[in-house]
Amino acid sequence: MGKVTYKRFKGSQNLRLRLLLATLSATPVLIEDIRADETLPGLRPHEISFLRLLERVSDDCLIEINETGTKLKYKPGIVMGGKHLVHDCGVNRSIGYFLEPLVVLGLFAKKSLMVRLKGITNDSKDPSVDTFRSATLPMLRQFGVPSEGLELKIESRGVPPHGGGEVVLSIPIVQSLEAVTWSDEGMVKRIRGVTFSTRVSSQFENTMIHAARGIFNRLLPDVHIFTDHKAGPQAGNSPGYGISLVAETTSGCFISADTAVSYVRGNDIDEMEDEKELMPPENVGEQIASFLLQEIEQGGVVDSTHQGLLFLLCAMCPQDVSKIRVGKLSPYGIETLRHIKDFLGVKFVIKPDPSTGTVILKCVGSGLKNLSRKSS
Amino acid sequence: VERTVSRKNINLMQLVYGTSASTTAINEKRESIDDEESDGDDFFKLKGEGNKKLKEGLDGTDINTEDCSKFTNYADLKNWKEEEIYESIRDRFVTGDWSKAAQRN
Fold first, then answer.
1. Which residues in chain A have their CB less than 8 angstroms from residue B2's CB?
2. Residues in domain RNA 3'-terminal phosphate cyclase (chain A) (predicted)?
């Protein structure tokens, strides 16, 4: 047996991206100095949970962590997929944190993936499950992913600090993706959204909707925001409320914005000093509606949050040219571009389009094929 | 990073991939300085200080930054209730001028 050569990294940054790309490109990675100088060194519970999830969906992968958790060795296996899997995401990060890499992995699994994820469905740090359902999944269809068997069911909701939400994710497998020429943003034809409330009065939702509509109404009549008040066991373990919005354009782009409000996580030392008072629902609605308009103003076929996923999908296409348009490059988008070059050897040609203030990116896909899929 | 992206003439390729020789040289230099420093006073170092040094990692960013794709910058939100401001994006909506919108492509 030959000696395994590991791609080496430092620090906890972009851990999901590194592990995802390592798995897709079958590259073993070694990550050192993970929060080595912090009072609480090493991997965080949500990162461990993500590693467990990787272990669960794949066969023959090898994970080694040193005693303090500051050093991680990962040798990817074959992504198996499978049905009726259950994973507890914990309450450190929301389910959105796990969905982002999982959806890409699922496409290249041996069997289609169906997994029940438990934890936090809505918070302010990660994309909400609603955004995932109404903006992320439609985006996959642009790349030739069939809509059959592609869905996210929200069974119950949970917000920080104690979570208690549950969703079921189904991802079909693909042989390969289809390269895209996707630079037409179109015009916003409708805005849809959903508010939720758990363990608080449903009146909070009406207030958020009223405030958000107040921002949109002068621009567009076709605005519908639904409510989703949860009670009993479906409301999870903590009180909270929030809103997710999606602007749909004439060319099939989905621009999203979301947020949620709840009490801070008790174990998060950094956030302990934050004020206890929650933002009133009126401000929440107004803020997120304004943020959506800002995303629309900046242009691009996806919002800032989805840039990373867009670049990943383009890089995983067959060896054809993809051309896409985004607004300002987001910091996470830039990190994704760098890691794609590291792992897949795909370098994008990036050109600003001064007349619109957007950025045009082109790349030739890495020709990633789903090798683990059974040929029939 | 944000501000540089918005400038029109910036070479985005360079910003993302850092291909030019000068930037890599600067990074290397900074790295070697860090190494020398940490050799000496590694032993008596306050937790906090170590943190700061780490934060200056390769290209001036913390190697342990939080892994977050969601872009949340609510700090400089414009007042979208003002007519002048919301009218400025009118043509991005179907209620606006379709011919102007078509020029974007």
1. 328, 331
2. 8-350
The Cα–Cα gap between A174 and A160 comes to 35
Give A17's contacts in chain B (Cβ within 8 Å): 67
C-alpha distance from residue A210 to each of A139, A282, A368, B84 (Å): 28, 8, 46, 22
Q: Is there a contact between B65 and A352 if contact means CB atoms under 8 Å apart?
A: no
pLDDT band at B26; cut points 50, 70, 90 = very low
Helix%, strand%, coil% for chain A, nearest 5: 30, 30, 40
A/B interface, count of CB pairs below 8 Å = 153
Chain centroid to CA A147:
18
Q: Which of A276, A298, A320 is the last residue of a domain?
A: A298
What number is the ipTM of this complex?
Answer: 0.89
Return the pLDDT at B101. Answer: 80
A356 contacts on B by Cβ (under 8 Å): 104
Closest Cα in chain B to A341: B17
Q: Within a domain: residue A375?
A: no
**Does pLDDT of B45 surpass 60?**
no
Q: Are A14 and B62 in contact (CB under 8 A)?
A: no
Minimal CA–CA distance to A309: which of A103, A168, A122?
A103
The token duo for B52 is 């700061």
Among A15, A219, A328, select the one facing B6 at the smallest CB separation: A328
Put simply, the answer to whether B89 touches A215 (Cβ < 8 Å) is: no
Q: Chain A: residue nearest B45 by CA?
A: A37
Instruction: Give chain B positions within 8 Å (CB) of A351.
Output: 12
Q: Residue B88 sits in which domain range?
A: 2-42+53-63+74-102
DSSP assignments along A126-162, one per residue: S--HHHIIIIIHHHHHTTT--STT-EEEEEE--BTTT
Q: In chain A, which residues have pLDDT < 50?
A: 269, 376
Domain hosting A75: range is 1-79
